[in-house]
Specification:
The protein is an all-alpha fold and 328 residues long. Helix content is 74%, strand content 2%.
Length: 328
Amino acid sequence: MHVTTTVWVVTLVVTLAALLVDVLVIGRRPHEPSTREVSRHLAFYLSLAVLFGIGIYVVSGPRYAGEFFAGWLTEYSLSIDNLFIFIIIMSRFAVPRELQQTALLVGIILALVFRGVFIAVGAAAINQFSWVFYLFGLFLVWTAVSLAREGAEGDQQYDEPRVVTYVRRHFRVSEQWHGTKLFERINGQRVMTPMFLVILALGVTDLLFALDSIPAIYGLTREPYLVFTANVFALMGLRQLYFLIGGLLQRLVYLAYGLAFLLFFIGVKLILHALHENELPFINGGEHVDWAPEIPIWLSLVTIVATLAVTAVASLVHDRHVRQRQAL
């Protein structure tokens, strides 16, 4: 896939413009968005992602379109799982509802920055060292096993990042909220506000999330442009999704298991790909492993869609049974 510098520049400019509009609108009028507002915006971002994928199909063919949709769906599903932690952070810090949009927007901007760095580093490493796929694959398999063991309980757990605890102990932090301000002057002294701690917690969380999401999407496509745009579209509607289905998230009890299966599947796919391009001397004498198959992108896409569908249906059926038992 050939992506010119002009296309990269236009993509970055449009992304920054969209973020700037959000910053200006929310900064001018912090508020808790209505269901109608978030539904309209979420539908807009989803439509943009689908149209972008269709554009990839027209310009570059079905292979790259399939890679984009597979990457986008995977990143979106991982982002939905991340919303559990965002909800817990907002609850722990008792963030006022009208200020949560601002905190989430800053968190999304930080996520884009972190993922942009990881995408660039990952692309450079892959181009230079094919054995990186072994590391990515093993890391995803290990993550999948850990996620499956934690199950639904893992989404309810949140340990405050050490850097946040350090800031609490060594710096003056106001107990009162001061709108969207990160710092405030109280009794002649400059102090941090709770909003600063919230954004710091979201930023650290975003950094940890990137460690999972970037290796996962590189298991579906090796095109940095598709990796970046899939992440952009997955993150763009995340704020609206937070307000729209915040309550529904608690009912997706099998989401962790579905994501664990997807990460395991992609991890195995990466390991098979690494074997196919093997250069490590202690594996098959440094020669390619002929029996290692390449999992086609259409199979990856079908697996992702089927897994998400089964996970959602099973979760809702389970929730229905629980509610019926409680009603008796």
